[in-house]
Amino acid sequence: MASSFVIACVGKPSAGKSSFLNAVTDASAKVGNFPFTTIEPNEGIAYYPVACPCAKMGVSERCKPRHGWCEGGRRHVPVRLLDVAGLVPGASEGRGLGNQFLDDLRHADVLIHVVDASGTTDASGRETRGYDPVDDIQWLRQEVEAWIWGNLDRKWAGVVRRHVAVKASPVETLHAQLAGYGTPRDVVQRALDRLPRELVGEFSRWEAGKELRRFVGAFLDERFPTIVALNKIDMADSDKNISAIMKRYHSKGGALVDGVRIDNIVLTSALGECFLRKMQKQRYISYETGSDDFSTDAPGLKPLDEKAGRRLETIRDLVLFRYGSTGVQEAIVKAVDALGYIPVFPVKSLSTFGAPQQGAAFRDCVLVRPGTTVREFAKKLHSQVIDRGYAGAETIGGIQLGESDVIVAGKNNVIKYTVSE
């Protein structure tokens, strides 16, 4: 079974979005088949590393994931990426591919905003020199906010009248309007919790241009957590642009600025990662994504020509040694971490950690939202069999789990379900 959430890669044209997607989804042969039934042309699969219980339980040699892979207790779990149409200023008014972009966002749970830190593309993605990208993060946020607010604004008077007539709660009224954005009720509630209590208490008097607009900003913070990938970090003007962006988004206490926390800004070189992966795949170097270096003298490697050698040394000097990695793996990790997802390992036996009489252990790993209960996961795992026939659940050590127990990583996230006949 696969995790259902989606990471959307967003940004203006030519920011390096497609290169970023290629850098994080170039699966090697050992990965095996994808866990998703349908992969559209603008989608891909990346891998999120988690601690696998196989090492702790002493069964690493039998750990054989159905999807992804596990090495030394480090499990690489597949996650879904969506390459969203390039956004330009004015998208909320239909400019460019704005309507397509904004519609694609309905399917996303978290955003990775790829920003061209080099200043070699303008706000519309046209090639230039000396462009200052410091505003790129802000205007993307403003476009998404204008899109959602505009949709609500057009019908707000009628929404308020119905709210008063049926005596609904603010969360009920807003959830009904925002359900089309793939929004769970708890997200709407958390957005309201960001506002002063007295403001929520005056909900029936909200004006679209004031209180509603303020709510939309809070809603975006909850609905679309955003990771910023400052890309093309090895180009000439990137250093000064990165410094300006970091200065703008630095805030005491790590508060959100334009929906972004400074610790969720990652420095990346997508093209550098693509080239390293290509050289690794062709057996010219030994390299692992996320590493701070590569090797050219490991056994079995082919000799490099001068041109490839020079390019590798440039990547080593300007990216790996300077920043510690190409940053692309870190961006994926931060995107999943921003959602707080928890890895769950359903097993059929707590003695073999697999199906009885079978050698393979920990075949499946599913990432679930924080707060998911044991029974909710049963329904997610198999609504027709496990949920309907639910007779109990237990975890390592034979500890019985209650239906309402919240799943916690490292505590009760290895689960065996018992099903009635």
Automatic annotation (TrEMBL):
GO terms for molecular function: ATP hydrolysis activity; GTP binding. PANTHER family: OBG GTPASE FAMILY (PTHR23305), OBG-TYPE G DOMAIN-CONTAINING PROTEIN (PTHR23305:SF1). The keyword Nucleotide-binding applies. It holds the Pfam family YGR210-like_G4. Residues 5-288 form the OBG-type G domain. InterPro entries: Beta-grasp_dom_sf, G_OBG, GTP-bd, P-loop_NTPase, YGR210-like_G4. CDD domains: TGS_Obg, Ygr210. This is OBG-type G domain-containing protein. Keywords: Nucleotide-binding. GO terms for cellular component: cytoplasm. The lineage of its organism: Eukaryota, Fungi, Fungi incertae sedis, Zoopagomycota, Kickxellomycotina. SUPFAM superfamilies: P-loop containing nucleoside triphosphate hydrolases. It comes from the Eukaryota.
